[in-house]
Structure formats: C-alpha cells, structure tokens
Task: inverse folding
C-alpha cells in the first residue's frame, strides 16, 4: 500500500531589488568617505592652528589678551550702565581704571627692578660668598667630570667658527629697544578693549535677537552670560587672592629689612597667575634677592621659605575654598593648557592659559563638546545627541 508523500508549501521570497541595494551601499560608502575626509581636514586644521598663532603672535597675542581683559571688565561696564552712564563713557572709564591699575603695578615693579639689576655687579661678591659651599661642591664635581671625559679618546675636530653674541649694554638699552614695539601693541590692545566694551550691549542684543528660534536665542544668551560670569569671576577672585598674597609677602619682607618689599610683593602677585611655574619662579627670585641683601646664607633663605609657606596655605586652603566652588577645572587640563599657551606665546601665553581654558570649557559645556567616536560611527557630533533616547531605552 503506497502512502502519499506529504506536501510542503514553500513561501516564495521576493528577490531583493539589486539596484536599490547597490544604491544604498554606494550612499553608505560615500557618507563614510565624506566623514573621513572631514575628520582628516579637522585634524589638519587643529594641528595647523598652534603654528599659525605662534607665527602671527604680533597680531593674535594682543588681540587675545585684550579680549580676555575686556570680558573680565564686562561686569564693571554693566555696573556703570545700570547707573545711567552711556556705553561709550562707561567703556572709557573701564579702560582708565584698568590703565591706572596697570600703571601702579608697572611702576611698583619695573622701576625698583631696574635698580636691583644695576646693583647686581656690586653685590655679586656677597652672593658668591654666601654660595661658597655650593660653588666649591660644584667645582669639585666639574673637575671630576673633566678628568673622566679627558680619559675618553675622541677624534680630532676641524677648526670651528667662533660665534659672538652681542647683548644690550644695559637694562636701559634693552628697554629702549623694545619700548616702541610694546607701546604700539599696548595702544592696539587698549583700542580693542575700548571698542569691545563700547559695543558690548548692542552686540549682545543683536547676537541674541538674530537667532532663528527662541531656543537658539535662549542658548546664545546663556552661553554669553556663562562665559562672562566664569571669566570675570575667576579673574576677579584670583586677582584678590594674588594681591593679598603679595601684600602679606611685602609686609613680612619689610619687617625682615629686605629692600624694595613692594616690588617683591608685586612680583609674587603677578607670577602667582601662572600655576605651578609662577610660585617656583617667585621662590627662586626671592632667594636671589635674599642673597643680595643678607650676609648670612640662612637669613637669605628666609624670604623664599616664608613665601613658600604662604603659598602652601593659599594653594591648598584658600584658593580651593574660594575658587573651587565657582570654577572647577581638571588639574591635567590646567597643565596642558599652561604648556600649550606658554609654547605658543611665552610668558604672556602662560598668564592667559587659565582664562582661555575657562572660556573654551564654558562654551563647550553650554553648546556640547565634540564627540569624535560618535562622529565616526554616525551617532552624532555632540555629546548631547542621543543621550535622552539611550536613557529611555535603558529604562524600558
């Protein structure tokens, strides 16, 4: 007896539309190529910017310093405007106050410093006597190294050329050579500060009202307010702390009988704007000044030792308590910013490193920081993109 075989019904699977699949694959590859090219161009631009800033330091440095100072002066400008002072007059008053503070700082530091430099040839003998134990140890070490190197055979070298480096004959000559260029840059920076402050109110209103949506206007206003508040708060607070530290240092040095205590207090206050490196430089200069003032080497160590003690209290107790609540910055970012701007613009760049870091950090915090991984994997270019969707999916 034959049993009929069971019938199996097979569903017909529609064949994929080959042109459509091929078109999607081409679009994906094109998008990936464009993303890669954009990323490469962005990396190239980022690598080129530091060299451009360094090469064009004569223009970019005074402009950047002027903008940072102008942003810090915005609260003072708004204080004048709330009392009915016109914007132009308020901007002029801010510039005059800034110039008065700068003139006091320069006169209290530069003029005594010129006298100290002039006294170096006269007091170098006193410094040498105080450092005699250290110098004798160094000379013994140098003789040992010379004897060791003399035992190593070296090939004969051809006649070399003698290079002579000419230096300015005096501190006054150095100032005379650099003064015209510095005055031009200072005048240009003051003009930038004045016109920025004079047009600040109108520029802010135009920037906010020109946005295409209410949300965009609100975001723009928030970013502007946060940048101004963070920058002015940091610079104002750190200036008050540095001036207090400089005043305490000057008072103690005056009590110890050290010459030009106001100059040393000003040097301490200015160098304290530079994290890490500034206090080290202050301690070194105070040690040199102590050697030029006191006969006893142990007495010469008192000025740097007292400053180090004051700085430890300021850096570990006062500054974190006052500044840390308002502006929180990663120490690694501070070190990287300090190294970068010091390499680009030298000492002035080191002074601007923290304010520039605060401005950039505030803008990124308000607008969204770039997300390279998200950009490569097509999940958006800002860290804010997709975060809410991911939270809802995880909750489900």
Result:
């Amino acid at each position: 007896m034959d049993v009929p075989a069971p019938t199996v019904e097979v569903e017909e699977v529609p064949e994929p539309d080959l042109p459509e699949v091929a078109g999607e694959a081409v679009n994906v590859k094109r998008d990936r190529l464009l993303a890669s090219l954009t990323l490469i161009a962005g990396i190239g631009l980022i690598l080129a910017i530091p060299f451009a800033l360094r090469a064009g330091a004569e223009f970019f440095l005074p402009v950047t310093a002027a903008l940072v100072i102008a942003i810090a002066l915005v609260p003072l400008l708004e204080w004048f405007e709330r009392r009915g002072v016109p914007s132009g007059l308020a901007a002029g008053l801010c510039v005059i106050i800034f110039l008065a503070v700068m003139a006091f700082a320069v006169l209290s530091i530069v003029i005594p410093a010129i006298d100290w430099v002039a006294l170096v040839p006269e007091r170098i003998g006193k410094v040498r006597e105080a450092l005699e134990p250290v110098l004798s140890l160094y000379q013994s070490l140098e003789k040992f190294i010379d004897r060791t190197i003399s035992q190593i055979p070296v090939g004969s070298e051809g006649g070399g050329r003698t290079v002579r480096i000419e230096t300015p004959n005096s501190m006054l000559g150095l100032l005379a050579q650099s003064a015209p260029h510095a005055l031009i840059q200072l005048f240009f920076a003051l003009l930038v500060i004045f016109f920025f402050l004079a047009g600040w109110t109108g520029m802010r209103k135009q920037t906010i009202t020109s946005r295409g949506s209410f949300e965009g206007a609100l975001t723009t206003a928030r970013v502007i307010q946060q940048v101004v508040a963070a920058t002015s708060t940091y610079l104002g607070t750190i200036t008050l702390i540095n001036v207090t530290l400089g005043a305490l240092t000057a008072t103690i040095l005056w009590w110890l009988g050290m010459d030009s205590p106001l100059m040393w207090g000003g040097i301490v206050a200015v160098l304290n704007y530079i994290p890490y490196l500034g206090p080290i430089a202050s301690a070194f200069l105070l040690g040199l000044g102590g050697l030029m003032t006191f006969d006893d080497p142990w007495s010469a160590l008192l000025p740097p030792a007292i400053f180090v003690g004051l700085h430890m209290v300021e850096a570990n107790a006062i500054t974190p308590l006052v500044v840390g609540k308002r502006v929180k910055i990663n120490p690694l970012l501070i070190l990287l910013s300090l190294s970068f701007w010091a390499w680009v613009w030298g000492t002035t760049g080191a002074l601007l490193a923290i304010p520039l870091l605060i401005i950039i950090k505030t803008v990124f915090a308000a607008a969204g920081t770039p997300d390279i991984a998200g950009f490569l994997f097509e999940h958006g270019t800002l860290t804010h993109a997709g975060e809410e969707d991911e939270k809802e999916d995880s909750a489900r």
Observations:
- Residues 154-160, 162-172, 379-395 have pLDDT under 50 and may be disordered.
- The radius of gyration is 32 Å.
- The longest helix spans residues 87-130.
- The CA atoms of residues 290 and 299 lie 7 Å apart.
